[in-house]
């Protein structure tokens, strides 16, 4: 387990860090005296009990080993353990996600478009990339990697049209860092279709143009995001 | 805000300096830990806009010359995240999960006393 990354994940939730009996614990109150305790080690176990109980079970003092009750606790933690390993990661992810408010209005999107415009005007690769990342996240686009490309062009594809493997994506965003060139193809695109791959190669060589370019791309994505949220509400 | 609302659960003294004359005058005071007088001021509007989460305070031991400067984090002062920050946090969360899932190793399954044969061991 990469502990630095796990710590980052834990810090996105309302956990308090404590070091008890040499254990790295992340603790939050569940109810009255019940705590949720995450032990930051390779096992990444989550317990629902008190901090003292976790310390006893995971790092007992030799004096505590003389009690049969304690030995039973140390040998069997099934009564208090909630999850381990990947299950804990998924649990922490879901909990942290529940704290985020990802609902939006047209005003929120207008701000994103404004930032994108400023990024394009400044020709800042980092800021353009961030604006792109935000829309890609909002619209569930997927990064697409094609080996046929000669230059470093990032591509993001919209959801598959009929949800089946091997079917076409729509639309396709292309971002070429070196020239800060941003384009969007509205037509369906399939990596399995030679004619579509040929179009991408021609675009990267500057021999054909995308349907939308520069700021038009962000404006289109904002409209798409707005339409999507209206569809969900309807 | 009244003083009791401001008292943080844990005073996190991470910097203590002698109080210089250039600091702004405190806007209130209270007895802290029965021995020290703590004075504080709220962050200014410009500091808040810059994302300052600190309330500045000066603690005195009561002997006049031992005035110290303290600052601490007040969770209540944290502004709610904007929509953009929420989306950024979601992106960070997705990336963290993706990286972590690829690095974590699942614990070995408990031995059920039966060794599964490989498909090659079967004969028709």
Described by the principal axes of the CA atoms, the overall outline of chain B is: elongated
State the total count of DSSP E strands of chain A. Answer: 10
Helix content of chain A: 40-55%
Largest interface: A-B, 30 and 22 residues
N-to-C SSE string of chain B, H for helix and E for strand: HEEEHEEH
* Ends distance of chain B: 82 Å
Order of helices and strands of chain A: HEEEEHHEHHHEEEEHEH
Q: Could you tell me the number of beta strands of chain B? A: 5
Judged by helices, strands and strand pairing, the structural class of chain B is: alpha+beta
Strand order across the largest sheet of chain B: 1-5-4-3-2
Q: What multimeric state do the chains show?
A: heterodimer
Q: Approximately how much beta-strand content do the residues of chain B carry? A: 15-25%
Report on this model:
The complex is a heterodimer of chains A (234) and B (124). With 234 residues, chain A is of the alpha+beta class. In chain A, 43% of the residues lie in helices and 20% in strands. Chain A has eight helices and ten strands. A five-stranded antiparallel β-sheet of chain A has the order 1-2-3-4-5. Chain A has a five-stranded antiparallel β-sheet with strand order 6-7-8-9-10, with helices on one face. The model of chain A has no long low-confidence stretch (mean pLDDT 87). Chain B has helices at 3-6, 45-49, 83-103; strands at residues 17-18, 28-32, 36-41, 54-60, 67-73. In chain B, strands 1-5-4-3-2 form a five-stranded antiparallel β-sheet, with no helix packed on it. In chain B, a hairpin with a 6-residue loop joins β4 and β5 (67-73). Chain B is elongated, with a radius of gyration of 27 Å. The interface between A and B is medium-sized, with 30 and 22 residues.
